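User: I'm writing a tutorial on reading structure tokens. Could you give me a worked example: one chain, its sequence, then its tokens, then a sentence or two explaining what the tokens reveal?
Assistant: Sure. Here is the example chain.
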Amino acid sequence: MTLADTGQRRASAPADARRRVVLVVASTAAVLLVLLASLAFGSRAVSLGEILDGLGSWFRGIVPEDIGAIAVQQRIPRTVLALVAGAALALSGALMQAITRNPIADPGILGVNTGAALFVVCGIAFLGITSVFQFLGLALAGAALTAVFVYVVGSVGAGGATPIKLALAGAATTAALSSLVSAVLLPRVAAMNEFRFWQVGGVGGATWETMAIIVPLLAIAALAAFLAAPALNALALGDDVAVGLGIRVGPTRALAAAAGVVLCAAVTAVAGPIAFVGLMVPHVVRLLTGPDQRWILPFSAVGGAVLLTAADTLGRVIGSPGEVEAGIVTAFLGAPVLVVIARRTRMRAL
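And here are its predicted structure tokens:
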């Protein structure tokens, strides 16, 4: 490294610090904005005073008399679930992109969402499952088995698990599993009616009971992801370099993959297979923060929370007096983003 390079790095350090401070402030403001919007808008718009009244009554554990405040209280669980689910999906996508060194990897494209959905469908059709615990267990099993299958298939042949092979294996697996989902549902009208609303993906069915089940699991997986961030930076340099830096490549990749699968499967169990959040958010965050996973992971979580909450709010506004599910809105937003990423990416390591 020359003296000029050292000087450039020292000069860029304050600029990077300022940019990250701006991102922290902007992210905090965005979370507060979408939170207020989610509480304010729906089939009935409410004022700021009604929001404060509803929140105050909720904290005190009483039911307000004003209908606007009542509407605010009813929107609190879905707002919290949208924030938590969006953060988990984006964090899962960031982990999968880091593990596979593939900028278009996410739980949907790699088939993890579909694997979880298939197991839930089989549980509904053949076992008659109804509880969140059962949904969660089947979703975790389906997501984990699908992730392992895609990685094994993508590792076959020369070069091992390259980004392009993993993407193709995930796409093929998703298509096959989607066909199996249809095959299970078509002859079973009752199961189809129960599944079709869940399949779209949304947070309208949020309850405190379901969140009490998944939030501890999500918190443990998120903690594991953040602890793995420095090692993921080393993995981005290649396995040989990572080993030379003292990183245990296999356990690190397994820990990050397990965290990503748990984050995705837990959300899928309660909100359905919501697509594109894990693809869009980490890609945009990487453009803003650079390649350091210690910044990509937390900012992806914040960005995912903002995106899914905004999508849920937008779906309620444009579908009023009904609603358009958040999964439809994120798919509508995500398809053009996927096209742009595919055009700008040469399928090389991040």
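What the tokens reveal: The CA atoms of residues 54 and 65 lie 10 Å apart. The mean pLDDT is 82.
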